[in-house]
Request: fold
Amino acid sequence: MMQSALSALFWRELQLARSVGGGGAMGVVFFLILVSLTPFAIGPDLNLLSRIGPAILWIAALLATLLGLDRLFQSDADDGSLDLLLTAATPLELVVLVKCVAHWIATALPLIVASPLLGLTLAMEPASLAGISLSLLAGTPALTMLGAIGAALTAGLRRGGLLMAVLILPLTTPVLIFGVSAATAASGGTVPFHIPILILCGLSLAAVAGAPFAAAAALRSRDA
Amino acid sequence: MLKYANPTNFLALAARLIPWLAAATALLLIVGLYLTFFVAPDDYQQGASVKIMYLHVPSAWLSMMCYIIMTSAALGTIVWRHPLADAAQKAAAPLGAAFTLLCLVSGSLWGKPMWGTWWVWDARLTSVLVLFLIYLGLVGLWRTIEEPAQAARAAAILTLVGVVNIPIIKFSVDWWNTLHQPASVFRVGGPAISGSMLWTLLIMALGFSFLFLTLHLMAIRNEILRRRLRRLSIDAAHAEEKAEATA
Reply:
């Protein structure tokens, strides 16, 4: 019974993300805009762009992931379905986890697929392109899970979106550091590629294990 | 001890303690500043600018101690839902932000003559900056949620999540090769600074701790009174409504 409830929730989330205003496609467009604005800001110097390309892609992915996340619980809080999820027999921690997985598939996976193409426009080398995709694949789950805590804390608040970014962005610093260092290590350097990528996987696993409890506690605290 | 968990008893205790704590703070800071400027020697390399240490190091300690106190209060909020724990949490966040800012600014002023730069992105400085941002986020969260008990629970969760940063700050100078020097007071093998400098530092640190304690107690008292005022005004609004309905 619980399995079917969770899988129903999973498909519901994916369908909502695909529908108009769901934010799945918007995230990629936002990512594209952020990346293409950067060369205008720093000038079309290809050497410089290929050197800071991983950093640009990571910053853009971070912002695109987090800014899409404020809708994770907000729309459910608005239409009342969050109250149903809170009173349901299914553990809230699993509900949070399933919603995050669906959200990650709908928003982060397209970013990861698009990132090598955008990396080409930033004159990044092939090894670096593979590195950025792998590092985003390993690191974005941590971003989604951390963002879920912020989304749960700010669900139902007026002007919650900006507050959520302020609360969560400082906590994403380690992910950003190791994400960029993995992507740059892929195209040569003193650090072997597997060290930052393993740390990144560890951060994501820790976030997947811990964040659902914090986010569920935050959701329960809204009206306890 | 449990007697003082009652807000009314706590207010009475705070009213008795605050003047003594304030006096002790003033005394310690006066003695500490006297020692800083007239007794503690100049460094043979750094000259007089070493005196920034007596401001910088205590504020850095306090910025972390404040977070630890706030974390204990957050546990009190989550486990017992105690209003006093809520007030202690709320009162600590702006104080922690202030001490962290003091630490960052004094460190920056010290860094310019010593390192030749206001700021470097090494692990210690960056993790303290993240601590400052977490404090600011908490203040923002407190101000956004109107219902105090709900704000307390949300802030407690964020505080508990953010506590991972504290060991990172403490050990950043050991884990990474930073421009910031490693610990020289609390370390294996005893303090690496000696004599009058160590004493001055410890007295300043004690003075800062008493300053924090005084300000924290005062802020908790204000928060309890603010909550009572809120309750009274809600009750008054209800009474008025009822009177209008019957009239």
User: Anything to note?
Assistant: The mean pLDDT of chain A is 85.
